[in-house]
Amino acid sequence: MINIRKLEADLWESADLLRAGSKLTSNQYCMPVLGLIFLRYAYSRFKLVEAEILKDRPVRRGRVMPVEASDFNEKAALYLPKMAQYAWLVNLPEDITSQNLHDIQGRTMSSLGEVVNNAVELVEQQSEQLTGVLPKDYTMFSDELLSELIRIFNNDALDDVGGDVIGRIYEYFLNKFAKNIASDDGVFFTPKSLVKMIVNILEPQSGVLLDPACGSGGMFIQSGDFVNQLGMSANSAMTFYGQEKVEYNAKLCLMNMAVHGLTGVIKSGDEANTFYHDAHNLNGCCDFVMANPPFNVDKVKSESAQSAGRLPFGLPGVNAKTKEISNGNYLWISYFYSYLNEVGRAGFVMAASATDSQGKDKDIRQKLIETGHVDVMISVGNNFFYTKSLPCSLWFFDKGKPAELQDKVLFIDARNYYTVVDRTLNEWSEWQLKNMNAIVWLYRGQVDKYKGLLAEYRSALGADASFEEALSQLKVELKDLQKRAKIETEAANRKDKKRIQAEYDELIAAKNEEITVAKEAVWLYEKFGEGEYQDILGLCKVESRAVIIEEKGCSLTPGAYVGVAPVEDDGIDFEKRMAEIHRELLSLQAESNYLMDTISANMKEMGL
User: What is the pTM assigned to this prediction?
Assistant: First the structure.
């Protein structure tokens, strides 16, 4: 089976080398490259649906009736005319002029860029949602460069793993471009682990979902996946609405949705500025609201915001002189609450400072707490965003909370619970997401879901032993693998050494992944056993509204409630370890001095 992660990385490396060679910026390169991936995805879907249609196709005079656009419409799929099909683009000869090709306006095409632009226009003719969305600036590439890009995304491995994987490839590229493009005043990408946490806790299954700061559409994609994994059709069960002030990001959102097979209504530009407009007239109508709004926005016109409504708890603090709101965080918080219907749920990312801000913010927060609809609060540590190292928090509202939870709020402090991706980026792994979700399940009394997760761990580890025993056994197996790798690699001849090392590296990496799963199983089971919620010092605490308001001054900061976990004694003698580190440092310094002397002597011999 093909390694999807390696495929993603290989495709990115190839395309990014071309980007560097073209001297285009990431911003210029992003949309055209994503557009090509979209065309490749559309073709994969086209071929799958075409094969399905042809199974029962009538035959006339010995010939199978050709497929038509209406056949695809019946299956909610995109029909592609021949000149929009990726295979046709790939097989074009170098000399475009010699082919005497004409675009949809009847003009003769003389470059590959014109041919791809025409393919995009043909696709847009098939989908109202995509009209004016896909990039049509492929003439900025040389034919040679564009041909190479088309070839890169026609990797045979994509066919081996199936068309739906291109959705993942698209998402991977979008993430990579986000890291390159995003700046402090235009962040459009929400890290996937934050999105998944929001979706997992809200559990969208049917109804109206609004993201009033939708960026590239991550909330819609993840919600669609969640619904589809339940065995339902996301497009049938959910109605997606988005607002995005930056038109460039709104196009990314529509492309992202289309490449994942989702439809939605996305509005952009001035009419989609959520501070002043409810672009879809959804106030009080939403089953779900999800968002990652821009934090700490200043200079919001207070009169315009007030006249636009959606402020059930009043305006935040206003500068009397300028009539401006200096921080828009509590405008967003109020909007998210106001959009919900009588049983709606909201989940959103917010600046960490908003859980404790004072003045009018505190008054709004108290009114929110008094409703009984604040459900879960999660503190997130540093480095979860590509462009910001600051911590944030996840807020969850539930207007349909059961009576027994009306007086309670679950606080989770996850600032010290994450996986390090690299020096500047952290995330939650899939199992860490499940573990945090499990805490919420137990708070809600959904013990069956918790037990289902324990069963999933047991299945993944393939052992009937306790999680602790499974972890110990895996560590023994890892040491044995490492020992065998060393012996066999050293004993191998020069020709086989690299191959044997690579084989063992793969086995060791797989074993380390199993160990990671076992560690997360141990982490969860040590705290909650077979499924009984309890407050865990330094991690989670369920608190009453009275304590929050009267004793804690309306703070919604998890750290104010969960306390600090005791520091575990690792059994290491501090003085002894410091002495070892000092000896290691002296040894490294001596080695460094020796190397410097050797380099200097060699340079003298060379007359330098």
Answer: 0.82
